[in-house]
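Section 5: illustrative case.
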């Protein structure tokens, strides 16, 4: 079986990357969504309180958003699900740096050259082909010094790609994802991950709470 990597991704990965670049540049005409509103981070604030809790415990100072889209979630005031309005996420989290990486968006397409205290990835993993997920998740963990926060949708997307396929190409139960995360964790002793799973588009965000330490040293939000 072929082992894929960043230097040798699967043909499926290359095809999807080209489609996401197209959507970033031209929007989603069938939905009437212009480019500037496509993958603009609007759903990210629902994770802000959970991340705030993690940073408060670990004292993290630098963050990387892996699969950040256009990164607009860091450019403007933010309204949390509980109604609070924040000037920006950087101030709310009290961190010194937030970097963005997204291979499909030109301004953020350069691969990070350093390690960050925390790596965030929301609404990204389910868009990746199964055959590439081991190296993608391994890469994401390798960029974190203290923790990884990853959100995964467990259901088909409302969006379709320009070729007519559903945007969520990998739909699997939590146990399937946890096996991949735990495998990546074994290569990074001392690292923690926080997993947030949503089983429907309308699922309400889980309230921030103290998390339970898992058997592999992981930290899981349910």
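Designed sequence:
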């Amino acid at each position: 079986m072929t082992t894929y990597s960043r230097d040798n991704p699967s043909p499926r990965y290359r095809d999807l990357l080209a489609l996401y670049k197209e959507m970033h540049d031209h929007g989603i005409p069938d939905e009437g969504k212009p480019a500037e509103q496509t993958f603009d981070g609007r759903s990210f604030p629902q994770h802000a309180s959970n991340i705030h809790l993690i940073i408060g415990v670990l004292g993290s100072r630098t963050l990387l958003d892996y699969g950040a889209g256009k990164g607009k979630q860091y450019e403007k005031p933010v309204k949390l699900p509980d109604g609070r309005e924040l000037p920006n996420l950087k101030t709310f989290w009290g961190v010194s740096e937030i970097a963005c990486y997204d291979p499909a968006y030109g301004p953020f397409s350069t691969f990070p050259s350093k390690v960050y205290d925390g790596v965030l990835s929301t609404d990204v993993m389910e868009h990746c082909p199964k055959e590439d997920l081991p190296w993608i998740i391994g890469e994401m963990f390798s960029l974190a010094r203290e923790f990884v926060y990853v959100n995964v949708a467990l259901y088909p997307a409302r969006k379709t790609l320009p070729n007519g396929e559903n945007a969520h190409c990998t739909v699997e139960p939590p146990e399937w994802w946890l096996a991949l995360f735990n495998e990546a964790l074994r290569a990074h002793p001392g690292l923690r991950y926080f997993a947030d799973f949503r089983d429907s588009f309308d699922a309400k965000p889980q309230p921030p709470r103290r998390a339970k330490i898992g058997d592999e040293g992981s930290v899981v939000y349910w």
